[in-house]
Amino acid sequence: MSGVSQLGRADQACHELLLRLAGRLPDDLLWRLRDWLAVEGRAAVSATLPRALLRNRVGLTEVERDLLINAVGGWGAPRRLLDAVLPVHTPDPPLAQFRAGPAVPDLATLSVLAVVRGHAGTTELRQSLRIDGRGEQRVVLVLGADRPWALAGTLQRLLRAHGERTPCVEVLPSYLEPPAYHQAAIVGSAPVWTAAESPTVTETPAGALIGM
């Protein structure tokens, strides 16, 4: 991370924290936080995220708390709110189930693919359907990407233009081991595109998670 600006490190920490909060914060809140982050709306993120964690009684591990402080702690979030966030040793496992979507991609998927293929650093695009008590929800998974928070915001806005009210876009940086939610989503997903020079997810160490 040498050579990365202080703001860039904070954006990266915030993106990683929001990834870890997938399945723990409501979709309608999570996509909005990611949208603000993508357009440099850091004041809105810092004002909303700590209160959302408290309101939804979402606890953070020590690693996640460090990410919170490294991100919104420098964007004006009151320290008393950060200190009030509940601690948790290990997050609860995801309750949702995931399965692969239709074999034939729809227009929204093709539009997402066109953007992902042109974004620096991306190695794979996968898609899953999350199934829980609220029904089915498309989950887009992108492996690798430079400035992953910016790509997540772009893809969210694209999916909203195709009629998705609460788009779920998970852009996983190459350095991050997928959290449990994303492990489950990868297992229950289908590949859409893989970079020619990159092995598929089932051939990489991250793909080894599928056999767990």
From TrEMBL:
Stated name of the protein: Uncharacterized protein
Originating species: Pseudonocardia bannensis
